[in-house]
Design brief:
Blueprint lengths: L1 H6 L4 H19 L4 H18 L1 H16 L1 H10 L4 H15 L8 H21 L9 H9 L1 E2 L2 E2 L8 H6 L4 H29 L8 H21 L4 H24 L6 H17 L5 H13 L5 H12 L2 E3 L5 E3 L1 H26 L11 H5 L24 H7 L4 H8 L16
Antiparallel strand pairs: 1-2, 3-4
Helix pairs in contact: 2-3, 3-12, 5-6, 7-12, 10-11, 10-12, 13-15
Length: about 425
């Protein structure tokens, strides 16, 4: 470990300088020789490094998403060469090269912070051996040797001898208990981070070398931390435990807000998004708009969870737009337009009925008024007035037509022929 750390001695000076600057700030609060001042300085160094690595982490996420877009092609290769493992691997590597993706991109953050890790190890190892290193002078060296974290010196290790621990003003039992607890926490946090990635944020419909790699790392990294952790100083364990906790929180945030398509995390995310959109009728944040836009762009290539999301919006009368927004569907808008037109027509009819002229009923006349009423005019209806013409003055034909038994029907009924010889009447039988 000392040999590897010496390879990164070129960044020992900047790492030691950052630690000293943070120690100056925390030393004024907790005291320059306390474990809080030096421990928080190491934690702050981790946070600063991880913030600087955020662009690299974003690149890692994009590379992972690019790997997910290749899942259909990977599945085809697996089905085509399922009996030839070597040809399958060759075709997979060819696909990675053509698409410009790298299955090892998930290891970039670890590889990028490795130089800082070994540089810090080199600094703390120098403190344990009493050597001035970087910008740490004799006064800071003596202060760091006095600093203890829960009774364990910063430069002490799990396998440190009793003489070395006594020289640092501590007990061997305290050192081993603290280092053992920190190694367990460090390994557990690393295992949980990888397991969370494998169980929630990976598309399990396609088996790829990437998934096999992640599954291997889920078990290899905790074992590596447990094996090598016994040779790390307490300060390095603080550094690595802090970076593991940061990675775990960062991974949880990504899984919750930007899950991998086809994973269980995406199913949970789309359920929450469906509930919110159907209640409020809109998308809240820019990241949600980006996810909705990606789902709309896929078209028929959507997975099961994305199809359920689109169907749920359609049932609620909503439609996802290509720009990532959500609006009312055409059928819903037409229904609301018709409903508004019916309401407007009903309101207009009710208003016209309420404000229009009412039909006035004629006034009732008394008996004396009806008797003395004026005679009707010539244009009045003849059916309502009595004729003053005597019955005898009517034409003869009209009088004859009004007699009973007259006319064609009467003659037909009496058996007489019209305009021809009359049939003789049969004699009556007496």
């Amino acid at each position: 470990m000392d040999t590897i750390a010496s390879l990164f001695s070129f960044i020992t000076w900047p790492v030691s300088w950052v630690i000293v600057q943070f120690h100056t700030v925390y030393g004024t609060i907790f005291g320059p020789d306390t474990g809080w001042a030096w421990g928080l300085s190491i934690v702050s160094l981790v946070i600063l490094i991880r913030i600087c690595l955020v662009p690299l982490f974003v690149k890692q996420i994009k590379a992972t998403r690019a790997m997910q877009t290749l899942q259909p092609e990977m599945k085809k290769i697996q089905e085509r060469y399922k009996n030839d493992r070597q040809r399958q691997s060759e075709e997979m590597m060819k696909l990675y090269k053509e698409s410009g993706t790298n299955p090892l991109s998930s290891c970039l953050p670890i590889l990028a912070q490795s130089p800082f890790f070994f540089a810090l190890y080199h600094v703390l190892n120098g403190i344990a051996s009493g050597k001035q290193i970087g910008v740490i002078d004799e006064g800071l060296l003596e202060s760091a040797r006095k600093a203890h974290i829960f009774g364990a010196p910063l430069a002490a290790k799990f396998f440190s001898s009793e003489e070395q621990v006594t020289a640092l003003h501590a007990s061997l039992t305290d050192v081993r208990v603290v280092t053992a607890i920190m190694i367990v926490l460090m390994s557990a946090s690393q295992f949980y981070t990888q397991r969370q990635l494998m169980t929630k944020n990976v598309d399990t419909t396609v088996k790829t070398p990437f998934m096999q790699q992640q599954k291997m790392l889920m078990y290899v990294f905790p074992v590596m931390f447990a094996v090598f952790g016994v040779n790390f100083p307490v300060g390095v364990l603080v550094y690595w435990l802090t970076t593991n906790v940061w990675t775990m929180g960062q991974q949880m945030y990504v899984i919750h807000n930007n899950p991998t398509p086809g994973s269980k995390a995406q199913a949970s995310y789309l359920e929450r998004l469906t509930k919110h959109v159907t209640q409020h009728g809109k998308v809240r944040r820019r990241s949600e708009k980006a996810i909705v836009k990606a789902i709309v762009t896929k078209g028929r290539d959507r997975n099961e969870f994305e199809r359920k999301f689109i169907n749920a919006l359609n049932k609620a009368g909503l439609a996802a737009q290509p720009d990532g927004t959500v609006s009312k569907s055409a059928a819903q808008a037409a229904a609301q337009t018709e409903e508004g037109a019916e309401v407007g027509t009903t309101t207009a009819t009710a208003t016209a009925t309420a404000t229009g002229p009412r039909r006035q009923q004629p006034k009732r006349q008394s008996k004396s008024q009806r008797q003395t009423a004026a005679p009707r005019q010539v244009g009045d209806s003849p059916s309502l007035e009595k004729s003053d013409t005597p019955q005898d003055a009517k034409p003869e034909a009209a009088q004859q037509s009004q007699k009973p038994g007259s006319g064609t029907r009467s003659k037909a009924q009496s058996g007489q022929r019209k305009g021809g010889p009359q049939r003789p009447k049969s004699p009556s039988k007496k």
